[in-house]
Amino acid sequence: GLFVSAFDHGGAGGGYENTWGTGKLYFEAMKVKNIRIHNRPAYNSEVHATRDMGVGELNNCYEDAELADTIVAVGTNALETQTNYFLNHWVPNLRGSSMDKK
Predict the structure, then answer these.
(1) Phi and psi (nearest 5°) for 3?
(2) Residues 48-74: pLDDT tens digits?
C-alpha cells in the first residue's frame, strides 16, 4: 500500500497540507489509508491521552518563554516558524529585558 508522511496545519479535506484539494487527493482519489502527520506516528492529535488521567496537554504559554531560564530548540528555526513568539517573547528573555517578570 501507499504510505504518506504529511504536515498538518488544518484546512484540508481531512486537515492535511493546508489545502482542501490535497486532502481530497489523498483520501478520496488515492484512497490513502496509511498516513501520518509530521511529528506523530498516526492520524491523531497531539494529546497523549493525558486528559483521561487528569493531566492537561504539554503546552506552554508565550509568557513562559519570557520567564524560562533555559530555552531549547532542536531542528527548528524559531524566527521563521514562530516569528511573533520568537521576537516578542524569546528575544526579550535572551537580552535580559524580562528580568523584572522573573
Answers:
(1) -115, 140
(2) 666 677 776 666 788 999 999 999 888
The pTM of the whole model exceeds 0.70: no
- Integer Rg of the chain from CA: 18
CA pair distance 42, 19, nearest whole angstrom: 19
DSSP letters of the chain?
Answer: --EEEE-B-S-STTSBTT-HHHHHIIIIIS---EEEETTSSSS--S--SGGGGT---S---HHHHHH-S-----S--HHHHSHHHIIIIIHHHHHTTTGGG-
Cα angle: 37, vertex 38, 40; to 5 degrees: 60
Q: Which residues of the chain have pLDDT under 70?
A: 7-19, 38-51, 56-59
First-to-final CA distance of the chain: 53
